[in-house]
Amino acid sequence: MKTTTLAEQDMQNVIATGRDTRTAVLTRSIRANVPLRKTFVQANKGAASRHGPLKDFVTGRDLRGLKAYLLIVAACSNGDKGWSTTHDSAVWARLMDIHETATDQSARTGAWRALRRLQERKLIECSRSGTMIKVTLLREDGSGESYDRPVGDAEENLFLQIPTTFWTMGRDERLDLPGLALFLVVAREKNWSAFPAGKAPEWYGWSPDTHERGLKQLVNLGLVERREHRTKAPLSPLGFTMAYQYQRTAITRPRKPKKSAAPAGR
Asked: Per residue in 8-38, pLDDT tens?
């Protein structure tokens, strides 16, 4: 049996993990919640299709790309550096946890490819110089238009919020692709909304089975809670219809800003 020496254990303790790196990026962004336009999840009513850019991540089985994109939004959307962020390719690989299963060079290559896929979806622009990779946000609807911070002043600027603790507490690490996609779906809507699986292909672009698996995982992990909701239906056999409603649990809801201390009286 292979044993680990004390020196090797010490070295492992001082090497930053993926979560350490994500936490450092989010700490630098100086925000409690990350805004994301609702049109990333689902297009507004009246559009030719209700599917948002999220659909392509789900149908393309691109969990790595989706996690990377959400983190880029978190890192860039404070506008501190013009909606951009720059890191060494090894740091990008660690942000995506690619380093855990690949050699250094393979991890660097994997990170660049993941970012290029986001660029092909017109969600970001990316460029590299040597080992440094610069990423700039584009609008979340996949239109390729320049990014600006959503402020909720119009339907196309409505946004959901994800608390930074979603990453710093490792809650993102526990979700598979259906779970993460449905987390965004639930976050997009009001508390205690219904998400019928039969509508998933029309509303979001993925299968009812994917939809149900995502909701089930969220409930099992305690990230979303579920309740029964009955509606009077005089012509139904039971006299009512029943549907499940969902909302985020307290640990995944947006964090309220801390109140400033009242000024001392004169």
From this structure: 555 556 789 999 999 999 988 878 999 999 9
In this prediction, residue 266 carries a pLDDT of 36
With contact defined as beta carbons under 8 Å apart, do 126 and 119 qualify?
yes
Beta-carbon contacts of 208 under 8 Å, excluding residues fewer than 6 positions away, are 197, 198, 200, 201
Q: Provide the residue ranges of all domains of the chain, joining segments of one domain with +.
A: 17-168, 175-253
Distance CA 209, CA 58 (A): 12
Q: Which CATH number fits domain 175-253: 3.30.160.20, 3.30.450.30, 3.40.50.720, 1.10.10.10?
A: 1.10.10.10
Predicted confidence at residue 235, as pLDDT, reads 81
CA 173/CA 63 separation, integer angstroms: 11
